[in-house]
Design a protein that fits this description.
Layout: H1 3-8, E1 33-44, E2 47-58, E3 62-66, H2 73-80, E4 88-93, E5 96-97, H3 104-111, E6 114-117, H4 129-140, H5 145-158, H6 174-186, E7 192-196, H7 204-219, E8 223-227, H8 231-237, E9 240-245, E10 248-253, H9 255-260, H10 265-295
Parallel strand pairs: 3-8, 3-9, 6-7, 7-8
Antiparallel strand pairs: 1-2, 1-4, 4-5, 9-10
Helix pairs in contact: 4-5, 4-6, 5-6, 6-7
Length: 297
């Protein structure tokens, strides 16, 4: 597998980018809807995972998908960027029919416009931070080394890692590696960023620094779809929230509705449990912060 293919999509092999055709669809469309899923069904064998999903994301919006484990949240993200193909339904991103992008080259061309930040950081361990950020922009977008490095330094400053350009991933904390992964995604200037439970593998004291960076991206108008178990964060940053369970969207609406006055009993029960987990996590972070303060001379 090439370094370039990994930079574009750490989970899937792909051919060199020179084979990718020009992007198909309505690139640069003025349509305010950037992502559209309609009646999407997906099964693994006889096990249904998504059962008639309808979802729309407008440009500049932050949308959070919440729900219990196994409810199809992460699968939805993979359907949006073409990693998984549903058996039925329509999936469009910026006017492009995602299901019609069948060859590896077509999928790479599509994913140049969709950033994906995973639970795992997927950084190249043998490359320093600066090289991790510049390899795809230089190889795929044709930027000069000087331009790519200039952008990379600016992005590292944005995620508060300006002094880590020469560091290697193994020298960074989990939170720092995740912020590098976010900066690497931004280096491709994507129209859309998908975040898949990006804080789930982090220590409690590093969660806040990653959420702060994502919140600032949302404030800047970056279109984002977030799968998260951080309920307070989802309530703060989202324009719309979708609650999923059993492969269906049980309820959707503004954060004030979903978190303040949910209409469905399943949503209410889930949020009661999730908020209890949030309170326990907050206490754990507070204890960790206090212990660090005491240990610091």
């Amino acid at each position: 597998m090439s370094l370039l293919a990994l930079a574009l999509d750490p989970l899937q092999e792909a051919p060199p980018p020179g084979l990718a055709p020009a992007r198909q669809g309505v690139a640069g469309s003025a349509d305010p809807v950037l992502v559209s899923l309609r009646d999407v069904h997906l099964s693994y064998g006889t096990v249904p995972v998504l059962k008639g999903i309808d979802l729309r994301v407008r440009r500049g919006e932050a949308v959070s998908i919440i729900g219990p484990s196994g409810s199809g949240k992460s699968t939805l993200l993979r359907v949006i960027n073409g990693l998984i193909a549903p058996q039925q339904g329509e999936v469009h991103v910026d006017g492009i029919d995602v299901r019609a992008q069948r060859t590896d080259a077509q999928k790479i061309a599509l994913r140049k416009h969709i950033g994906f930040v995973f639970q795992q950081y997927n950084l190249f361990p043998h490359l320093n931070v600066l090289a991790n950020l510049t390899i795809a922009p230089m190889s795929v977008l044709g930027r000069s080394r000087a331009e790519a490095e200039h952008d990379a330094h600016a992005l590292l400053a944005k995620v508060r890692l300006a002094d880590k350009a020469d560091a290697y991933p193994g020298e960074l904390s989990g939170g720092q590696q995740q912020r590098v992964a976010i900066a690497r995604t931004l280096a491709m200037r994507p129209d859309l960023i998908l975040f898949d439970e990006v804080t789930s593998a982090l220590d409690p004291e590093t969660v806040g620094e990653v959420l702060t960076v994502i919140g600032e991206l949302v404030d800047d108008g970056q279109t984002c779809v977030l799968v998260t178990h951080e309920m307070r964060f989802a309530e703060d940053v989202s324009d719309e929230v979708f609650f999923t369970e059993g492969g269906v969207i049980v309820e959707q609406g503004a954060p004030s509705q979903i978190f303040g006055a949910p209409e469905n009993e399943r949503t209410r029960l889930f949020l009661q449990r999730a908020r209890g987990d949030d309170r326990r996590a907050l206490r754990k972070r507070s204890r960790s912060g206090a212990a660090l303060a005491l240990a610091t001379p």
